[in-house]
Amino acid sequence: MTTKRRAPRQSDVARAAGVSQSAVSRVISGDTDTARIPEETRRRILDAISELGYVPNAAARNLRNKSNRLLGVHTFESVFPHARSDFYFEFLLGIEERAEEVGYDLVLFTSTGTRDGRRRIYRDGTNRLNLADGSVLLGVATNREELARLAAEDYPFVHIGRREVPGADIPCIVPDYADAAGAIVDTLARRGHRDIAYVREPFDQESYLDRRAGYEEAVRRLGLTDRSPGARGEPNLTEEWLDDLVAGPETAVVAESVRLAEELRTGLAARGATIPGDLSVAVLEGVWPGTSAVWDCLQVPRKQIGRLAIDALVAMVEDPAQRARSVLVPCEVVPGETVADPRTD
Amino acid sequence: MTTKRRAPRQSDVARAAGVSQSAVSRVISGDTDTARIPEETRRRILDAISELGYVPNAAARNLRNKSNRLLGVHTFESVFPHARSDFYFEFLLGIEERAEEVGYDLVLFTSTGTRDGRRRIYRDGTNRLNLADGSVLLGVATNREELARLAAEDYPFVHIGRREVPGADIPCIVPDYADAAGAIVDTLARRGHRDIAYVREPFDQESYLDRRAGYEEAVRRLGLTDRSPGARGEPNLTEEWLDDLVAGPETAVVAESVRLAEELRTGLAARGATIPGDLSVAVLEGVWPGTSAVWDCLQVPRKQIGRLAIDALVAMVEDPAQRARSVLVPCEVVPGETVADPRTD
DNA sequence: TTGAAAGCGGTACCAC
DNA sequence: GTGGTACCGCTTTCAA
C-alpha cells in the first residue's frame, strides 16, 4: 500500500499551476467580481486541482467563514433506541428531508451522553453544538439550564415543542395544542354536548398548559358547563370522581392523553358505562397504533414540524441579525369512534 | 435583545486573567505534562473562562488537530424515509450506540442529494466527507467510482456490506453469507436431504456471490446433488423448471431471497405441492415481519454490524498507519417452519 | 490581473 | 512555570 500522503493544499495546487495561492482560492470560491482570472490561467488551475485531487479543507474554511453548512440535532435522550415507533422518528424524518433540500448536512450530537442516558449539551464546560452553524433541539427531558445558557450565548437554535425559560426567549416550533383543544370542544358542542368534563395529567409542562388554555377558552366561549376537578387544576380520575361522573349530567369527557383515556374507559366499564354510548371521549394527543380504541383525537404533524424547524433554523443562521421567532403549527383533529351525539335520557 | 456580541476567545480570557494566551490553552487542554500551572493561576484562568463564558472554537481546533471527533455516515439513498422497517434502521442503531460509547459525534451527510434520490459523495469536485475524521458508508446503490476515488484519496472509511472495486481494497463489514449458506445446507443434509435445488436472484452483487460460494462449497463437501439451473448460474423459477422440480428427485430448495421463496411457494401451490410437506425451503436472507410464512433463514446481525463498523473506523482514524481490514460477521441460522425431513416416497 | 500578507482561533514547541 | 511564536489551510484586502 502506498504510504499515507498528505492531502494536497491550495499551495500545492498553486505550485503545480505556477500561480499564487490566492489565485487558486479565487478560482475555487468563484470570486468573479473582484478579480477576473483569464480563462487560460483558470484552466491551468482547474487542471492542477483535478490532477492532484485537491479537496478544500473544511475546518480551515469554517475558521474563516464561520459557517460550515452543518446543522446540529441534539436530543436530550438517545434517538434511535426509541425511535422506531415513537416520538422522535417523524421529527427526524422531516428534519433530514428538509436539510437535504436546503443543502445542509446534519450533525447528530451523541457524544455528550452521560451514564444515565440523559444527554447534555455542555461537557466539561464546552458547548459541543458550536460545531454546527445552528441546532435543532428536542426531547422530553429538556434541560432548561442548558437552554438558558445557550440562549445567553446567542447560539442559533430552535426547540421542538414549547419551552419557557425565565429571562430567555426560546424559539420554538410548537404544535398548536390550544387551538386543537378548542376545535375538539367545538365538535363536541356542535353535536349538542353541553356538560363536559376534563381529565388532566399530573404534569404542568407547557404542552399541557396549552391544551388547558385552549380547552378553557372554548368552554367559556361556547357557554358549556364543566364542573370537573380536572378543569380546576385538581387531580381527577379518582374512584370517587368516576362515581360522580357516571351519575352526573356530563355527556362528554376530554382527556389530555391516551393513557388517561384508556384508564377512563376501564373505570367507566367497571361502572357499566360505555364509550361513546354513555359518554363521548376525545383525546388531546396524537394516537399511536396499538391503542385499544380509535379515539377521537388531534394529530401532531411531526414531520412537518421537523421541516419547519429546519426552515426556522436556517433563517436564523443565514441572517444572524434577526431574532428568532417561535412558530405555531396547527394540528388536525381526526375523528374516531369515541365521540357520538349525547345520550338523550 | 442584546446585540450579537463576538464570542470570547482565548486571548480575551488571557487578558482577563492577566496571563498569556498559551497559558490559557494549556489549562484548557489539561496539558499537565509539559507545564504544570500553579493552582493559583489555574483558578484565575478558570474563573475568567466561566466569567466570559468562553467556549473553544471547534473549527480552529480541527484545523490544528486534524481531528474533530466526528464520524460521518453516508448513505447512498436517503436514510429516514425508508428506515422505519428496513435495511438501514438497525445499522444506524448500532452506529449511534457505539459512536456514543466511544465519544464521537455523527455527521449525517444529507446535503449531497441529487434530484433522483441518489446521493453522491463528491459534489462539484469536493468531498464533503472530509469534514468528518472518517465515515461509514452504506447503501444498496453504492457508487463504486466514488468508492474508488475515496480509497485513492486515503480517506478513512468503512463500507457496510462487501464491495469490490478493481484496484482498491475497500474495508468492509460484511455478513458472512457464505458461512451461513453453508450452515443452512448442513442442516438440510443433516435431515437427510440429498437432492436439492438453488434459486437465484438475477443480480450479481457481492452478497449474492458470497451466498453462492458458500452454497456450492457445502454441496460439494457434503456430496449432495444439485441439478438446478440456478446452481449453474442460469435464471430459474420458470414455469418449466417448476414442472421439472415437482417431478424431480429434489426434496429441498434454497432460495436467495424471501421474494423468491414466496414466488416459489406460489408456483408450487399451483402444482399442488406444499412447503414443507413436499419440499423444504430455506432462505438465504433475513426475514422481515410481514412475510407470509415463517421461513427457515439466516439472520444478519445488523445492529452488531453497525457497532463493528464504528470500531473498525475508529481504529483507522486513531491510527492512520494501519491499513484497514475487512471484518466478516457471522450470521445466525434461525429455524422456521419451512424445513422438514425429506418426504419418503 | 496577480501576489504578498494579515488574520480566523488554537496548539505546541522553545527559550527565558 | 511562563510567554513568545510559528503554523494549521483558507479567504480577503491591499499593493504592485
TrEMBL record, chains A, B:
It comes from the Bacteria. Residues 8-65 form the HTH lacI-type domain. CDD domains: HTH_LacI, PBP1_LacI_sugar_binding-like. SMART domains: HTH_LACI. Gene3D superfamilies: 3.40.50.2300, lambda repressor-like DNA-binding domains. Pfam families: LacI, Peripla_BP_3. GO terms for molecular function: DNA binding. The keyword DNA-binding applies. InterPro entries: HTH_LacI, LacI/GalR-like_sensor, Lambda_DNA-bd_dom_sf, Peripla_BP_I. The keyword Transcription regulation applies. Keywords: DNA-binding, Repressor, Transcription, Transcription regulation. This is LacI family DNA-binding transcriptional regulator.
